[in-house]
Design goal:
The complex is a heterodimer of chains A (about 220) and B (about 220).
Chain A lengths: L6 E5 L4 H12 L5 E4 L7 H6 L8 E4 L2 E4 L1 H11 L10 H27 L3 H21 L13 H21 L10 H10 L3 H4 L5 H16 L2
Parallel strand pairs in A: 1-2
Antiparallel strand pairs in A: 1-3, 3-4
Chain B lengths: L4 E5 L4 H12 L5 E4 L7 H6 L8 E4 L2 E4 L1 H11 L11 H27 L2 H22 L12 H7 L2 H11 L3 H4 L1 H10 L3 H6 L3 H15 L3
Parallel strand pairs in B: 1-2
Antiparallel strand pairs in B: 1-3, 3-4
Helix pairs in contact in B: 1-3, 1-6, 4-5, 4-6, 4-7, 7-11
The chains are: A alpha+beta (about 220), B alpha+beta (about 220).
EC number (chain B): 2.5.1.18
InterPro entries (chain B): Glutathione-S-Trfase_C-like, Glutathione-S-Trfase_C_sf, Glutathione_S-Trfase, Glutathione_S-Trfase_N, GST_C_Tau, Omega/Tau-like, Thioredoxin-like_sf
Keywords (chain B): Cytoplasm, Detoxification, Transferase
Chain lengths: ~220, ~220
């Protein structure tokens, strides 16, 4: 890998899906160009590279586009093999992939998408459902500094970008307390650990601006 | 260490069919346990506490859930024979992308087309045909989605084959007319031993769909 690698990331500052890619690139020390996309005014480049979904993140590596955040993370890990983010053991890898899917599908759905369309009581019920789902991660964290074990891994990037540094901001905007103090000691410890990792904290959207954005997204999802 | 492999699956499941195909391609011997996902047995709950769904692949007592995750696991563990995913990271990323497409975009209209009525049904039919066409475009002139080799995306899609006849019947369309090249691809896949062994009879699937439609009040 002696020649200059061309790495470009198309992302959106508030998107947990693109933020997690930035975290991975920083963890691996990979230099990249960043292109900020807009939800409403998608660039011709984005539309050309991702015609099917028209979404971020898009990673462009030496002219080739890789799409879907989990797919991009795995691509990064396989291409730049130092500081691995996926476990070596196939069973552990399958668990990381399973929980990553849980975060981006069920937790994101119950913890945000469905909430936007519900009223206060409905949101409280969804908050309870979300707590039940996050409890699976709580159990995985017992005895570990990170979901990846001793260091930040694939699942930390997925769950970290999504829950503490995105959904929690949405919940604050909605006036909901989802992560109750008593039930999530491991989660809270994990978030504190994440906050000590530069590659993670460098890539977190600024809080107040993010809460405002999440409130805007509530309106957007509600009317869709 | 003895390799003990068990698959909890339900005969009509297109997801279970994928896993069966992958196991067969690798020549892995396993115990098949017919598991009705509506009956939450202690084993199902123990092995898939989060979703309580099939298929569940159990390898030496450890459960692996979600069919595409199972296929990657099978490929990584039984890596000395018949690679299912390409080795090149970019090619692999393309295969994974299409796997995601099938699960996140194709799946919904694929069941709504037989399980819904009225506007929802019309929308599902339109979307399903669009997605079939997208997949046909992706296939292009290759013999398989994997290129020369029957691979990950082929398995992900051919798992639905038993349901194609039901989709055509209740969606009132013909794949031969809409996506003739894709139909040629299915013909190449269904002569493979792994696929033959893993498919359900399409007419049995239609009967099963009829029962579900009655239960849903669609008939």
């Amino acid at each position: 890998m002696a020649e200059k690698e061309e790495v470009k990331l198309l992302g959106i500052w508030a998107s947990p899906f693109s933020r997690r890619i930035e975290m991975a690139l920083k963890l691996k020390g990979i230099a990249y160009d960043y292109v900020e996309e807009s939800l409403d005014n998608k660039s011709p480049l984005l539309l050309a590279l991702n015609p099917i979904h028209k979404k971020v993140p898009v990673l462009v590596h030496n002219g080739k586009a890789i799409l879907e955040s989990h797919v991009v993370l795995e691509y990064i890990d396989e291409t730049w093999k130092h500081n691995p983010i996926l476990p070596q053991d196939p069973y552990d890898r399958s668990k990381a992939r399973f929980f990553a899917k849980l975060v981006d599908e069920q937790i994101f759905n119950a913890g945000f998408v469905s909430m936007t369309k519900a009223e206060q009581q409905g949101r409280e019920d969804l908050a309870e459902q979300t707590r039940e789902l996050i409890t699976y991660l709580e159990k995985e964290l017992v005895g570990k500094d990170f979901l990846g074990g001793k260091s930040v891994g694939f699942l930390d990037l997925v769950a970290g970008s999504m829950i503490p540094f995105c959904l929690e901001r949405g919940w604050e905007g909605m006036g909901l307390q989802v992560i109750t103090d008593d039930k999530f000691p491991e989660y809270k410890r994990w978030v504190k650990n994440l906050e000590k990792v530069e590659s993670v904290t460098d890539c977190i959207p600024p809080k107040e601006k993010h809460i405002e954005h999440m409130n805007f997204m509530v309106g957007r999802f509600r009317s869709s | 260490m003895a390799n003990q492999v068990t698959l909890l699956d339900f005969w009509p499941s297109m997801f279970g069919m994928r896993t069966k195909i992958a196991l067969a391609e690798k020549g892995v011997e396993y115990e098949y346990k017919e598991t009705d996902p509506w009956v939450k047995t202690p084993l199902l709950i123990e092995m898939n506490p989060v979703h309580k769904k099939i298929p569940v692949l159990i390898h030496n007592g450890k459960p692996i859930c979600e069919s595409l995750i199972q296929i990657e696991y099978i490929d990584e563990v039984w890596s000395d024979t018949y690679p299912i995913l390409p080795s090149d990271p970019y090619e692999k990323s393309q295969a994974r992308f299409w796997g995601e497409f099938i699960d996140r975009k194709f799946y919904d209209p694929s069941w709504k087309v037989w399980a819904t009525m009225g506007e929802e049904h019309v929308a599902a039919r339109k979307e399903l045909i669009e997605h079939f066409k997208t997949l046909e475009t992706e296939l292009g002139d290759k013999p398989y989605f994997g290129g020369e080799v029957f691979g990950f995306v082929d398995i992900a899609l051919i798992g639905y084959y038993s349901w194609f006849k039901a989709m055509e019947k209740f969606g009132e369309f013909r794949l031969e007319k809409e996506v003739p090249k894709l139909v040629e691809w299915t013909k190449r896949c269904i002569v493979r031993e792994s696929v033959v062994k893993s498919m359900a009879d399409p007419d049995n699937i239609i009967q099963y769909a009829c029962v579900l439609r009655k239960n849903l009040g669609v008939e």
